[in-house]
Design a protein that fits this description.
The chain is an alpha+beta fold. Helices cover about 55% and strands about 10% of the residues. Strands 1-4-3-2-5 form a five-stranded mixed beta sheet, covered by helices on one side. Strand 2 and strand 3 form a beta hairpin. Helix 2 runs antiparallel to helix 5. The radius of gyration is 27 Å and the shape is elongated.
């Protein structure tokens, strides 16, 4: 049988990506990859329907009333709809099983969607800010009654859409991105309704542009948060709230553990942290027992269930020159263990990171 003749029908035990040799094991006890896609899709489609129907009517009213606040709300609702469509597409892609060259599947499609949502919020806020400043300088005639009525209806529609999306799994950065779009739009409609009431009762036309600037501030805040969080995942930074040095110091304090290096902590996708590390155990120590204890610690203390730990005895395979596994002198770095590529070395007792 040729090397590519076999059927991929077996279940793969999937750990981290930096396994070398030795006792490498992937710990993955019962962790869940992804969200409850079917249930989430129903809630997202319900929110999408509400938004699209109302947006079409708001565009007509916005031009009739010459209100930038309404037009900006409608433009934001368009990005709401686009963000939900992206979320639905990403949800379907990320649910596909891992195969071929995509050893994690397409789980990061949801992070692409979240980043696209954040970028559209930032770009749209820049355009609306430019238009709003122009209207502050030279405000056009705006029909406050149309603005007020439309904005109040928009509040109700966005409340309903936000409620639908709150039922979806917001631990997914993808769903959270779409949800932030809708919540920002809800606040925008409240600001627009206040502006409409001011224009109707006082004739202060600049209230329309001021409401638009409030919307811009909300969009900037939500957009920056999404780009920052998705960027951390793309750059494979440690998940927020997890300090790799603290994790390593805790693990190296375990009985029989002498040294930990090549430690990497990242997120496969939102809510799915993973870790890989090379563990050196005292000669004669039980490698398998150490691995099980460390994986239990990671699971209980950090909720990391996707762990690949290569465990070797100190001094093992030294003659093969596979890697530096003898204890180096203080301050020395072995020639075949590059600190830049492998990260800091952690040993029991006081040490520098």
């Amino acid at each position: 049988m040729s090397s590519h003749d076999h059927e991929h029908t077996h279940d793969h035990a999937h750990g981290g990506r930096d396994g070398h040799g030795g006792h490498g094991h992937g710990g993955h006890g019962g962790h869940s990859h992804g969200v409850a896609a079917d249930a989430d899709r129903r809630w997202l489609v319900s929110a999408l329907t509400l938004i699209v129907v109302f947006m079409a009517g708001e565009v007509v009213v916005g031009f009739a009333a010459q209100s930038l606040a309404l037009i900006s709300d409608a433009a934001h609702m368009l990005t709401d709809a686009a963000s939900i469509v992206l979320a639905l597409i990403a949800m379907r892609l990320s649910a596909r099983p891992a195969r071929g060259g995509y050893t994690y599947g397409l789980k990061r499609a949801e992070i692409l969607s979240a980043q696209a949502n954040g970028l559209t919020l930032l770009l749209l806020s820049a355009w609306l800010a430019y238009e709003a400043v122009g209207r502050l300088i030279s405000p056009p005639e705006v029909k406050g009654s149309l603005v007020l009525v439309t904005a109040l209806v928009g509040v109700v529609v966005n409340l309903a859409a936000a409620w639908c999306m709150s039922k979806a799994n917001r631990t997914s950065l993808n769903v959270e991105g779409a949800f932030q779009h809708v919540v920002t739009d809800l606040y925008a409609f409240i600001a627009t309704a206040v502006a409409g009431a001011i224009m109707l009762t006082t004739g202060f036309l600049r209230a329309d542009a001021i409401a638009s600037l409030i919307v811009v501030a909300l969009m900037l805040r939500a957009g920056f948060g999404l780009v920052r969080d998705s960027g951390r995942i793309f750059l494979e930074a440690a998940p927020a709230g997890i300090d790799p040095d603290a994790v390593a110091d805790q693990l190296v304090a375990a009985p029989e553990v002498v040294e930990i290096h090549d430690l990497h902590i990242w997120e496969i996708t939102s809510g799915q942290p993973a870790i890989s590390a090379h563990i050196l155990v005292a000669p004669g120590g039980d490698c398998h027992a150490v691995r099980r204890d460390l994986q239990r610690q990671l699971r209980e203390d950090y909720r990391i269930t996707h762990a690949t730990l290569q465990v070797d005895h100190l001094g093992e395979d030294e003659e093969q020159d596979l890697l530096q596994i003898t204890r180096p002198t203080a301050g020395a770095v072995a020639a075949d263990h590059c600190a830049d590529s492998h990260g800091p070395v952690h040993r029991s007792g006081p040490h520098e990171h």
